[in-house]
Amino acid sequence: MEEKQITVAGVQEVDVFTSRNNYDMMQEFVNQGYFGYSHFQKAIDYGGGEYGVGIVSQNELSGQSGASLPSLPGIEGRAYARAEFEKDGKTIAIYSTHLSYENSDIRRQQIETIINAMDADPTPYKILTGDFNTGDSNSEFYPFLRNYNIANGKDDVWLETIGDTAEGSRREIDNIITTRNIKINTVETVNEGLSDHYMLYAQCELLDEEVPNRQLLGYTLEEAESLPSDSYTEASYAVLAKAIEEAKALVADATQDQINAMIDKLEAAMDQLVESNKIINDSEVGTGVDQFNFVGEWGVSQGYPDRFYNGDEHWFNWARYQEGDIVPYFTITFEGTGIELYGNKDTMMGIYDITVDDGEVIQVDAYNPSTLYQQLLFSVTGLEYGQHTIKVSATRNKNENSTSSDIEIDYAKILYDQDIQEVDKTALKIAVDLANAITDKDLEKVIPVVANEFKAARDEANAVYNNASATQDEVNAAFDRLASAMHMLDFVKGDKTALKAFIDDVTGLDSSKYSTDTWTAFETELNEANVVYNDENAMQEEVNNAYKELVTAFLNLRLLPDKSLLEDLINQAEGLNGANYTKASFDGLTKALNEAKAVYENPNATQEEVDNAKATLEKAIAGLQANPSTPSNVDNTVNTPVNNGDTTVSVKTGDDALVGTLAGLALLSIAGAKVLRKKED
Q1: Predicted TM-score (pTM) of this structure
Q2: What's a Pfam family in this record (predicted)?
Q3: Domain boundary assignment for the chain
């Protein structure tokens, strides 16, 4: 690597203090002196140590991370490593990985996981190195080609990177993959005999902009042109032919988005190709589409190519039947516009019951005075193109001239008589690809009602896209629903921490200490706040509003005033005898007394109103004038238990709980402000 002046490298099959290699391989790279920095990502525990992938670099590494990749029980665990380094003033993210050789489906999932991670990586320049174990086909690299460049396979030149002794039919399994703003100038391999793999290296150039790449379009176009037109209905192949023509005419300076849209159009046209009339032999047995599903005691005859299609048939006669057995029948689920059923006719054949899509029972008489093979027994045409099911049941019914009621079935022919309308799935394909890249982890913060709708819309969109018979209206509806759901993915769950803390603080307040009006308003907001807190779909704005309204209602609470002195004064005034005082002065007392009673009986009276009423009543009592006609032995003085100092008696106007809650509110407000600042930052 020093000879080739390698700046950075991905390393696979790395041991760290295992029984196989009892040292740290990544540190050993650094110890050699050429590379100054390394990063290791464990895939599995192995041999008393760790086994995984790594990165070595001449430039300082930062942002080191990595993750495990999808796997299955019995398949060795895999991972990818990631780090960043600076080169020519640009930040580059470097990835290293090693994929599973055992299972192509798992390998496909691993590739999807890495692509999703790289797509989500905001670093503008990205490089992926790895042993991809793509032993099945070069096409396993095609998913990368949609938005990335490949070194091994560049310009369709594939280099062997593993020796002859390696298992598997393909040897071009290692690769270097870059973003479109990294130009791959040269690609070479070196076989030093130190490993069963050859070192693959590329000389790259950092560009200031992304350069479109047509390599995947070329592969897709090649595949489309390889499909024989006579194998498909004229109408469905016409859609593909038009897409091929458009792809060939795509302008030279097309953007990557335009190129990818054309790839989508070609793939959609290929997906909706409909095979021309298709024969299903009775030997194609199963429960899937275009298969015979025989139920009951059927016999099979084989080795008669002169009689039966492909030399075989299925048959049943009632001599095989025992009471309690299932009456034999078979079904075929097919996709088309009709079906023809072929079998034998002779003197022993009976009458069959046939239904299509659980419709009306149609009886078919297979009797014939002489034996005829491969005869048309039943036909239905003109069905709406799509999936249908035919059911054929044996019966004991027969023609009066037949000697038995047997049934012999040879093959079926699926019909495609209806023109397939051109359906544009390009936009749906783009939406489906984006939606399928969204993981359950991505949806964790989204409110459940939106997350559930998104998943349902995504499932529907995938089903419609994969349905070759989907109409344009169905495609459009699936796209609209998925797009609408994706637009709402920013509807995230509100942070309810502060709301919950304040609810807990104020829930224990004593309602008897507060005025009715202010308590009613507070209780309403407290109930609303609890509703919002318990609503799993509440968003941040709703949470913030509930918090604000609850705090406001709490601050507006008013403690009940202390009316004890007013009560005593009222009782004293009511004990006075009006005959003992002048009418004018006692009328003044009566007026003040009535006003004091009104305040006393008002549950929403404030402390100020109580104090004013008390002062007014005191003044009225003090201003009473003795009646001159009152006998001299009558005590005209006001006998009151209220002393002169009573007007300065301290009145309890607060609730001890209020002080603690207000202090807590201040702390919450400070904490809340900190949270808000973090979000604004």
Answers
A1: 0.56
A2: Exo_endo_phos
A3: 2-211, 217-275, 278-415, 425-488, 496-556, 563-623
